[in-house]
Design goal:
Elements (H helix, E strand, L loop, with lengths): L3 E4 L2 E2 L5 H12 L4 E9 L4 E8 L1 H18 L15 E10 L3 H19 L3 E5 L10 H4 L7 H6 L19 E5 L4 E7 L4 H11 L4 E2 L20 E2 L6 E8 L4 E8 L7 H14 L4 E7 L4 H14 L8 H12 L9 H4 L1 H5 L12 H9 L7 H24 L8 H36 L6 H42 L5 H26 L6 H33 L1
Parallel strand pairs: 5-7, 6-7
Antiparallel strand pairs: 1-4, 1-5, 2-4, 2-5, 3-4, 8-12, 8-13, 9-10, 11-12
Helix pairs in contact: 1-2, 2-3, 6-7, 8-9, 13-14, 13-15, 13-16, 14-15, 15-16, 15-17, 16-17
């Protein structure tokens, strides 16, 4: 899985969109980055920009945007309602998929260092990227705002983390951070009462509600020694919420910010609001996601609601998303288009069609064409994915078999395992062709000078090693599928035992085919210790695959011959 991070820089300009366009145009010059949203505010004189991509590309795009902002935004003339202390006021990085917070922090530090060194702006790191506890809170970092920045920079305790400890009047300073993904999420109620909606919001939000003496609504608020209200916490961590009335739709909503969906996912927030609304005689009718959401949040929601139904979760991403949308009523106020609402789908490059996007007919025709790719490696991976898919199908059928209701979870687990193997092999279909194309590209490198010849030979060797590793990975992945296929042949729905057998045959054919690709690519590199190890392991995999396939097929034949 590709690593994807989001960047949400806030620029101190919200009135002149020509200035903002110059900044966002810089973001658009970086390959592998997609601009998702530009949200200007006239009263705040501030624009929030959102873009996503692979980490290195995002860092580069952020650097270019900050540089352009430093050239065309003059903080000496800036006025606005929102707290700020720089032309680019804040620039947080957010992990979306395939990357940890710790890794995201490293990229935030890398960006902060480059801004300080290459643009010469004082940089403070905040939230998860903070280098000291005092600087974790953005409010502390930005205290005094732009007007107090000169005095702040003169204080040794507030020396910037990166860049000069000097007041640059035109640009001010910047806060670079790493934070969790924030989801803006609204839940619709069958009431027009803002008061009742607020009551539910206070039930669930982390801050909760103020404690009162006597009557919970009209009683005197209890205060602590510092004179602050004593709060009764709500049921959901990392959740901010308030009730409001939406005139456009004629309903009240719970408006929520889920500040850490790893702590409180969307589906948990939805169910908790449902429970509290029901307790107050109110019904949830649906919900809406404001902005974009990571794919995994939707997949986890789909699995959650399927488990509640005691249904197998080993189904396609498309089906999981459909279940999530219908379960949470995400299409009540308007269509929910996954291609527009899910970050990873927004990033998919429709200009470059992948093999797995082709129809069966087109894939077959492409394979049969005079082009050498896709070839045996891609076809082997596809055969393996079909074998895993058959085993997964038997698991799903078994989980829904009449009379086996108490075994649904057992077969759901097998289906999930099979689905993971199937998806991995499907991705390797394209990776094998890409590996072949890399070899062809290496052979096409210039070879006039000795240096060019050496560089070309090195590139050919590296590309060939990769082209060996890919089919070897196909072999290892497909072999994992035998466990699922055998379990489904021996424990699954007996009416589908032949499908489990065909799955085993397809997995073995995949392994044999991938092995041929390993050997042909390894022909010139057999002295390489890494390749020797792969060849040794590969031979054993083929032997074990033959044995497992025979055992499963023999069992299947015995069952269908009775």
């Amino acid at each position: 899985m590709n690593q994807i991070i989001e960047c949400v820089p806030n620029f101190s300009e919200g009135q002149d969109m020509k200035i903002i366009k110059q900044i966002t145009d810089q973001i658009g010059t970086v390959e592998g980055v997609k601009l998702l949203d530009v949200d200007p505010g006239k009263a705040t004189n501030r624009t929030v920009v959102t873009f996503v991509g692979e980490p290195e590309a995002v860092v580069e795009a952020a650097l270019l945007a900050v540089k352009k902002a430093s050239e065309i935004i003059d903080m000496t003339k800036h006025k606005g309602e929102h707290p700020r202390f720089g032309a680019t006021d804040v620039c947080p990085l957010v992990p979306v998929s395939g990357i940890s917070m710790e890794e995201t922090v490293e990229y935030a530090h890398k960006l902060a260092e480059r801004i300080g060194d290459e643009i010469g702006i004082p940089v403070y790191c905040y939230e998860n990227a903070a280098l000291t506890g005092e600087r974790r809170n953005l409010a502390n970092v930005r205290s005094g705002e732009y007007e107090g920045l000169k005095e702040k920079l003169a204080n040794p305790a507030w020396k910037p983390d990166f860049g000069p400890a000097e007041f640059v009047s035109r640009t001010g300073a910047i806060a670079v951070g790493a934070r969790d993904f924030l989801v803006a999420y609204n839940i619709n109620l069958n009431t027009t009462s803002t008061r009742r909606a607020n009551a539910i919001a206070f039930d669930v939000r982390e801050r909760g509600r103020a404690k009162r003496e006597g009557h919970p609504l009209t009683g005197k608020i209890v205060k602590n020694e510092q004179g602050n209200p004593v709060m009764i916490p709500g049921t959901l961590k990392a959740v901010k919420a308030i009730g409001w009335f939406i005139e456009e739709y004629g309903v009240a909503q719970i408006s929520m910010n889920l500040t850490n969906i790893a702590v409180t996912p969307v589906h948990i927030a939805f169910d908790e609001v449902c429970n509290n609304a029901n307790a107050r005689g109110i019904r949830v009718t649906g919900s809406e996601l404001v902005g974009l959401v990571p794919l995994n949040a939707m997949l986890e929601a789909g699995r959650y609601f399927l488990r509640k139904q005691k249904m197998s979760t080993g189904v396609s991403a498309k089906e999981l998303i459909r279940i999530a949308v219908k379960s949470m009523g995400l299409d009540e106020l308007g269509p929910f288009n996954p291609d527009e609402k899910i970050i990873e789908y927004q990033l998919s490059n429709t200009d470059k069609k992948q093999l797995i996007d082709l129809s069966l007919q087109d894939f077959m025709d492409e394979t049969a064409s005079e082009s050498p790719a896709p070839g045996g490696g891609s076809v082997s991976a596809y055969m393996g994915s079909l074998g895993a898919a058959l085993a997964t199908m038997v698991a799903n059928l078994s989980s829904h078999k009449r009379g086996w209701d108490d075994r649904w979870e057992e077969f759901s687990d097998w289906a999930e395992r099979g689905k993971v193997i199937q998806n991995k092999l499907l991705n390797l279909v394209d990776e094998d062709t890409q590996a072949f194309n890399a070899i062809m590209a290496a052979f096409g490198l210039p070879k006039k000078s000795k240096e060019e010849q050496e560089a070309r030979q090195k590139s050919i060797e590296l590309a060939t090693i990769h082209a060996i590793r890919v089919p070897f990975e196909v072999m290892k992945t497909a072999y994992e599928g035998f466990e699922v296929a055998e379990a489904m042949a021996t424990k699954g729905n007996p009416n589908s035992v032949s499908d489990a057998g065909v799955g085993a045959l397809a997995l073995h054919a995949c392994i044999e085919g991938a092995w041929l690709n390993v050997k042909i690519n390894a022909a010139e590199l057999q002295e390489n210790p890494q390749i020797q190890e792969i060849l040794t392991e590969g031979k054993e995999l083929v032997r074990n695959s033959e044995s497992d396939k025979n055992r499963i097929v023999d069992y299947v034949n015995m069952q269908i011959s009775q």
